[in-house]
């Protein structure tokens, strides 16, 4: 199976996620030591979807991340560019309107969503700034974006331990639970290379979003960013 490189060629990234689709949710739960469910709940609270609102869930994979918005009464569109992920999602959640789309060229009209969110997917997009501008384009004025992404632990001793876990422990664990362990070597490398919290906030501002702010989860292993469209 394929492993993407850090230049994040879209066809490589899509093929890599196609290859891990069947066990992706289970693998993430194991590798995060169960933290993914806590992070998902934090995203749902940050998005604060209301009944009747339209929510775009980017990099939605199998659609698991979209379920809290559906439960809140919002109309949610799970969108991903991995057809393998979408096919697996359709088996599990046939009611969801799973949609194929590239975050840098979204197949939606201007200003149609009240909220756009992306969890653990932005760092896999080749053109981060282009994706942030596209999210802005499809969001209505006054709407919000919520980004949940791996980040940089704030406590230096823990940051060292975490980096060692990523590069040494993660691949062997992935071998036992994933259909494509090499994909998780890429994921570990992409996490380590991702910008820190202030840098991502600056990118949001540069793309046109206002009032960017973030909250650290699990001591900064993950950061939850939120901003608004003027």
Sketch the major β-sheet. 7 strands, mixed
The total count of helices amounts to 9
Order of helices and strands: HHHEHEHEEHEHHHEE
Trace the largest sheet across and list its strands. Answer: 3-2-1-4-5-7-6
SS-derived structural category: alpha/beta
Radius of gyration: 16 Å
- Could you say which overall geometry the principal axes of the C-alpha atoms support? globular
Low-confidence stretches: none
Residues in β-strands, percent: 15-25%
Query: What does the average pLDDT come to?
Result: 86
Helix-residue proportion: 40-55%
Distance between the termini: 43 Å
Number of strands: 7
Summarize the structure.
This protein is of the alpha/beta class. It has helices spanning 10-20, 24-31, 35-47, 67-71, 83-92, 128-138, 156-177, 181-193, 197-207, and strands spanning 54-58, 75-80, 99-100, 113-119, 139-150, 210-217, 222-228.
Provide the fold topology.
Blueprint: H1 10-20, H2 24-31, H3 35-47, E1 54-58, H4 67-71, E2 75-80, H5 83-92, E3 99-100, E4 113-119, H6 128-138, E5 139-150, H7 156-177, H8 181-193, H9 197-207, E6 210-217, E7 222-228
Parallel strand pairs: 1-2, 1-4, 2-3, 4-5
Antiparallel strand pairs: 5-7, 6-7
């Amino acid at each position: 199976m394929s492993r993407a490189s850090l230049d994040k060629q879209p066809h490589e990234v899509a093929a890599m996620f196609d290859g891990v689709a069947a066990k992706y949710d289970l693998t993430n739960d194991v590798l995060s030591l169960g933290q993914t469910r806590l992070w998902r709940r934090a995203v749902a609270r940050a998005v604060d979807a209301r009944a009747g609102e339209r929510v775009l869930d980017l990099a939605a994979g199998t659609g698991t991340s979209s379920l809290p918005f559906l439960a809140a009464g919002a109309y949610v569109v799970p969108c991903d560019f991995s057809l393998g992920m979408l096919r697996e999602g359709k088996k599990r959640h046939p009611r969801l309107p799973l949609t194929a789309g590239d975050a840098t060229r979204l197949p939606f009209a201007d200003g149609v969503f009240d909220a756009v969110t992306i969890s653990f997917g932005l760092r896999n997009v080749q053109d981060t700034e282009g994706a942030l501008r596209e999210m802005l384009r499809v969001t209505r004025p006054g709407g919000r974006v919520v980004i949940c992404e791996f980040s940089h632990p704030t406590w230096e001793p823990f940051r060292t331990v975490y980096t060692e876990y990523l590069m040494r422990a993660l691949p062997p664990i992935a071998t036992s639970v994933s259909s494509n362990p090499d994909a998780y070597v890429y994921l570990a490398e992409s996490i380590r290379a991702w910008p820190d919290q202030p840098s991502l906030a600056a990118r949001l501002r540069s793309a046109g979003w206002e009032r960017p702010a973030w909250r650290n989860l699990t001591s900064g292993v993950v950061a939850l960013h939120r901003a608004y469209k003027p």
